[in-house]
Specification:
The complex is a heterodimer of chains A (253) and B (90). By secondary structure, chain A is an alpha/beta fold. Chain A contains 10 helices and 9 strands. Chain B has 90 residues and is mainly alpha-helical. The longest helix of chain B has 17 residues. Classes of the chains: A alpha/beta (253), B mainly alpha (90).
Chain lengths: 253, 90
């Protein structure tokens, strides 16, 4: 069955976001995602408030990344959230966007490996293990929680074909960041390739697609409002997607 | 003060207040206790109750006093408009 989710960018005061969060649950949305960017309100503080003002909706960061937030802290964040909203928490994690990482001088090193290793560390910690991990990007030496936790579904945020395939291989779900129908079709194909590579079944992976709408009675105002998020999305798009739409890669970056 | 709003105009007043309270740029004027009260009544779906509308009206007056007075004037809620004007700091 198709479900609908909604994403919040916590740029507004918390009480405004919560007003719309309550409205979203009342309106029947199944999932609530909150973006994770340093220049907006904190994702976990926002989600904690959302967990208190809702009763049913599934919620989680959509998406965080392992470069800005070490995976052990991401695991801690979602585990704590799961105490506030038991059984309603999901984790969205991707490679992050280059624009934001560049702003704070954080290198996006080996994004595929970083996401894959992060998911392994996060799952291990949520499973209550003492995680000793020697990866190419992340290393832990007996990282373990001092409180009880449980497994939380992990959605891999992806745009490029390799990350999409990784999402198919390891994700409980995938958050496809694509608005164009052709992009979505190709993205789903890549996810399925990953699913097949891992010998998994299609129904094991929840496929979700992020799409954006700008709504206003006045088309000029709707278009104007769309410019900042579209610019942001384009700046973070993999080159193959930009080329597919005839967008100059150099200008986009 | 909400007693000065007859039931037939409550919905219209609520819609106007919600619109500009949510669109305000004066977030810093919203006391945290008032924000929590507003969300409490909204969560309970009781913003239309007397207590809920009172909270919303207070938010309107604090965050957007001119727009609040203008909304009251548009809805012909003269008594309430006068009362709020009296209470506003000069």
């Amino acid at each position: 069955m198709t479900k609908f989710g909604i994403e919040f960018v916590p740029r507004e005061a918390y009480w405004k976001i919560m007003y719309y969060v309550i409205q979203a649950e009342r309106g029947g949305f199944s999932n609530l995602w909150v973006t994770d960017h340093f220049n907006n309100r904190n994702v976990y503080a926002t989600l904690a408030a959302a967990s208190i003002y809702t009763n049913q909706i599934t919620l989680g960061p959509g998406v965080t990344n392992p470069f800005m937030v070490n995976p052990v802290f991401t695991a801690q964040g979602v585990a704590t959230l799961d105490e506030l909203a038991p059984g309603r928490v999901v984790l969205g994690i991707g490679a992050g966007d280059k624009t934001t990482l560049d702003t704070v001088g954080v290198e996006m090193r080996k994004p595929l490996t970083a996401v894959q290793e992060s998911v392994a560390i996060i799952r291990g910690m949520l499973d209550g293990e003492s995680v000793s991990f020697q990866g190419d990007v992340f290393k832990t030496a007996g990282a373990k929680f001092l409180f009880k936790t449980r497994r939380i579904p992990v959605y891999v945020g992806a745009q490029g074909p390799k990350m999409l395939a990784l999402a198919g291989r390891i994700g409980d779900g995938v958050l496809i960041n694509a608005c164009n129908q052709k992009d979505v079709e190709l993205a789903v194909k890549s996810v399925k390739e990953g699913i097949n590579e891992a010998g998994r079944k299609l129904e094991e992976v929840d496929i979700a697609v992020y799409t954006a709408f700008s709504v206003h009675q006045d088309i000029k105002k709707a278009t104007k409002a769309a410019v900042p998020p579209v610019s942001f999305i384009v700046a973070g798009c993999p080159p193959e997607i930009l080329e597919r739409h005839g967008i100059n890669v150099e200008k986009a970056s | 003060m909400v007693d000065l709003v007859d039931e037939s105009r409550r919905q219209a007043l609520l819609e106007k207040l919600v619109d500009f309270v949510l669109a305000t740029k004066n977030d810093e004027k919203m006391p945290s206790t008032l924000a929590r009260s507003l969300l409490h009544f909204w969560q309970q779906d009781r913003l239309m109750s007397k207590q809920g509308l009172a909270v919303l009206l207070e938010a309107g007056v604090r965050l957007e006093p001119e727009k609040t007075l203008s909304a009251l004037s548009e809805l012909n809620l003269k008594d309430l408009e006068v009362k709020i004007k009296e209470d506003l700091p000069q």
